[in-house]
Amino acid sequence: MSESASNTASRRAAVRTGPAGPEAAAQDAALVARCRGGDTAAFAVLVAKYQDRIFNVIYRMTGNRSDAEELSQETFLRALQKLSQFAGRSGFYTWLFRVAVNLTLSHRRRRGRAAMRSLNGPSGPAGEDCEPAAALLADHREAEPHAAADAEETNRRVAEALGELEEEFRVVVILRDIEDMDYEAIGQVLDVPIGTVKSRLHRGRQALRRMLPDLVEP
Amino acid sequence: MNEPDDKTRQLSAYLDGELPDDEASRLRAAIESDPQLATELQRLQAVRRLIGNLPRQRAGGDFAASVVRRAEQAGLLRARGGRWRRWAGYLAAAAVFLVVAGVSALIIFTSRPGPGDGRQVAMDYANQEPPQLAAGREAEPPLGASAEGLDAAGAVNKLEAEITAAEPVAATAREEAPGPRRPVASADEPPAWNEVIYADDLAATQRRVEHAFASNSIALLGDRRSGRTARYNPAARTTEAYSVRRVRTNQVMYTVIATPSQVAQLAIDLAAIRGGEGTGQAGADRPAERVALRSLVRRRPPFAEEDGKLAAAPSALRDGKPETADADRPAVGRCLVPGPLEQRGLAYSKAPVPPEPSAGVATMPAADRSTTDALRRHAPRTQPVRFVTMQITLNQAAAATDTAPATSTPPGAPTD
Q1: Measured between CB atoms, which of A40, A119, A131 is closest to B58?
Q2: Are B78 and A39 inside 8 Å of each other by CB?
Q3: What is the C-alpha end-to-end distance of chain A, expressed in Å?
Q4: Among A201, B63, B257, B344, which one is least packed by beta carbons within 10 Å?
Q5: Surface-to-core class of residue A158, CB atoms within 10 Å of its CB (0-12 exposed, 13-18 middle, 19+ buried)
Q6: Shortest distance, CA A112 to any CA of chain B (angstroms)
Q7: Best interface-test mutation with B: which of A40, A175, A181 has the largest number of B CBs within 10 A?
Q8: In angstroms, what is the C-alpha Rg of chain B?
Q9: B62-80 pLDDT, tens per residue?
């Protein structure tokens, strides 16, 4: 097998199993099997495992914490409801993100795509509610107040720019650059060909580049 | 066809390592000869970095409880009396499933554990295959009200039961104010294992490193001011065992306090990350700890599928070759991973060797009696609880990446 073919095969395997690898995929499959039997503990494990990642993606898509909370909960309930339709062709992780993204897009359409506010404004979580990146900022603030303020301002502007992107570009950028999904997984989540993922991602990044010229100039 | 536009369109995919090898090679050549294309690549890299640096947001503390409650109300799960305590038991079990390896940071083990020794339990857990949840379990009777019902893995339950017995707050998970986070270990000695990673994309590498922590059930220390002390969080039932600080804009440093087994697993995970993101150095400041850790690393299975990154893993680890010769080498800083940065002369530098500390690694303070008692059941009576400290430094390989994009391999990109 050529290296390219080998890479492609291993990427496909990664898409099927999710980014955490085959062990995590095997665990997920077992948990899903038990969820289908109404097993509460297995469901709780799945929720605990994915809640933060699902929440973060939805939060970045909506820019609103309470919407993200509600939609994240709805995602898990919907997934539980539709579990019989999960055939295992993709990883559970990919399938769950698909549920989350579809729910969020429907929600945004219902809301008429209200303009997003800054994702890091006063209503945003702070302190221990935030994960390491925010922790970095906090540390930064203690050591170098000006640098921390700069970083916070940068994040605010980036989040705002992300919020201004067209929906179809924003979701691809989030799945790739925040969730670290590969193109094939993104294609499965959005049910679009890889070529479309490639094109939307490039256009999304180009748009962000134009919105943040001073931050991206080499 | 407008050829330059086509090339520009391919830059994002090139950056993400999503171009087929032949197209990537052609584009690399084009970037080398076209400064505008190179500049555009740098801009896109900057965009990706900015997005990746956005703070991660987390669901609220009662998120899982709310979801389970709603699922029960909707009749999507088997009803079991509906009492909060029962759900709390399940949720505590779920938390245990995710963090029990972190809890195992509280478990002592020696180099040659005997049968039935608690340290063997920790090792069993650390070395076990993925939990056998499905096979043979489907027909089991419904779960009981306690966390024992979550038979994710026998070893998990063993540990969980031990900890639960001494942790009434965690065991019942009552809806009450979380208790104070309890210090369980501190690590003021020099790290037993160092990792230095040069990353083409610092933000992406940070995410991967933090995923590695999460997958080893090592949580971020809540209070960043006491980053040298690991603590047990009775409400979340997690061991908060790593701290992070940004030293400079292009450097991030993690301190991890964990069992040797966890550190060994992390070393493997980080080697895989280095394979994808650049190169680095691994070593231990203390020969005795290094030997023990390397022995553990060798006992691990080879690297998990990391999407083609196996080839870049340290050969000594990959091939299981003995490293005893290194145990006598006083210096750290042997470059384990050959890669593009090494070829550019940026691979590593020899770090000075700190003096051998007179005492062992971290000892657990006696302040927290319940946790201490739980741990001591696993511990030999004559030895302190042992932890090791791992230090991980991520460096942005900015000069190499940003000024010479044509010669750098983007993370995850197929190599020639």
Answers
A1: A131
A2: yes
A3: 40
A4: B344
A5: buried
A6: 24
A7: A40
A8: 24
A9: 788 888 888 877 787 765 4
